[in-house]
Design goal:
The protein has helices at 3-8, 16-25, 36-52, 87-93, 96-105, 187-192, 287-291; strands spanning 27-30, 63-65, 76-80, 109-119, 127-130, 144-149, 161-163, 198-200, 208-212, 217-219, 227-237, 258-260. By secondary structure, the protein is of the alpha+beta class. Strands 1, 2, 3, 4, 6, 9, 11 and 12 form an 8-stranded antiparallel sheet that branches. The radius of gyration is 18 Å and the shape is globular. The two termini are 34 Å apart.
């Protein structure tokens, strides 16, 4: 759907100003959008996963572990596909945040994937500037990601950061000079960004961050040891046909399910091209691993 078609639809949960802001700026911050009942439930489930990770010794598809992980000091970087690992995560993904997605991608919404990221102040938990759509190209640029802060998130916790308006700018190469997937912009491309437009989305627990798949975003390193759990769910308009799937650890059994509205028979094709990601090898477990060169994958044509 075109932006004006989406805006012509009656909104479910957002205001007209909030929707207009998202399309103009490429992101949205909804403070205290999720209530304590959901937060308490998700907190309890999340803590159970952190505890379960104590016995993990290597990335196993469910857990992506930081290099310093130990049973006594668990450093779980990511829970992959939380939507399929506990009913609470899937109920949340199909609940209030799906209405937010419908207000921004149109009334017919497909679920794409989810992940639960942590930051532990280990010196390597920053996320370099990147865009999402090079990881999973679609026929249009409706895909977006909605993050839920499970805890209060100040600058010391490494909040989500975006470059205001960058969704209307170029798509950047996410491979390094040797042709290996880096999952981030090159130093030269980062140097070209207008950092005066960087917005650091600090907010209390229960707040939602939303960013478009073309929006350049990242997060600074954490200076706190509280983990900063961030639950992320990605959606797309049902008329967005994926050109490439996610790597196996991130591919959910719920991927492609219609969570609002109905399936669409004819895709909407944006004429702006999108490069393809590498051939995922099954060892790629998170953007942390991508950006730190823990896995080296070549361009799909090499």
């Amino acid at each position: 759907m075109l932006n004006e078609e989406i805006l012509a639809e009656r909104p479910r949960v957002l205001t007209a100003d909030q929707r207009a802001f998202y399309f103009r700026h490429g992101y949205l911050l909804l403070e205290r959008f999720i209530g304590t009942a959901w937060l308490d439930r998700l907190h309890a489930v999340t803590e159970s996963f952190v505890e379960a990770s104590r016995t993990a010794t290597a990335d196993d598809g469910a857990f992506d572990l930081a290099p310093g992980h130990t049973p006594a000091r668990p450093r779980l970087r990511r829970v992959n596909t939380p939507d399929q690992r506990h009913d609470a995560y899937w109920e949340f993904a199909t609940g209030p945040v799906a209405d937010v997605a419908a207000d921004l991608v149109g009334s017919n919404v497909s679920f794409h994937h989810s992940k639960l990221n942590f930051k532990w102040n280990d010196g390597a938990d920053g996320v370099t500037w990147h865009q999402d759509i090079p990881f999973y190209p679609h026929s249009n640029y409706s895909p977006l990601t909605i993050g839920l802060y499970l805890a209060d998130t100040a600058m010391a916790h490494g909040p989500v950061a975006v470059i205001d308006g960058s969704h209307e700018g170029p798509l950047y190469d996410h491979y390094d000079a040797a042709g290996h997937w880096a999952g981030c912009l090159s130093e030269a491309d980062v140097a070209s960004l207008d950092m005066a437009k960087a917005r650091y989305l600090t907010a209390p627990a229960g707040s939602l961050t939303v960013h478009n798949c073309r929006t350049v975003h990242g997060s600074p390193p954490s200076e706190s040891d509280d983990g900063r759990p961030l639950l992320l769910n990605a959606y797309a308009s049902a008329d967005a046909t994926p050109y490439a799937g996610l790597d196996p650890p991130a591919q959910s059994v719920h991927g492609g399910e219609i969570v609002r509205g109905a399936p669409v028979a004819v895709p909407h094709v944006d004429p702006r091209p999108c490069p393809m990601p590498p051939r995922w090898d099954g060892r790629n477990t998170s953007i942390y691993a991508n950006q730190r060169g823990e896995h080296r994958m070549a361009r799909p044509d090499e």
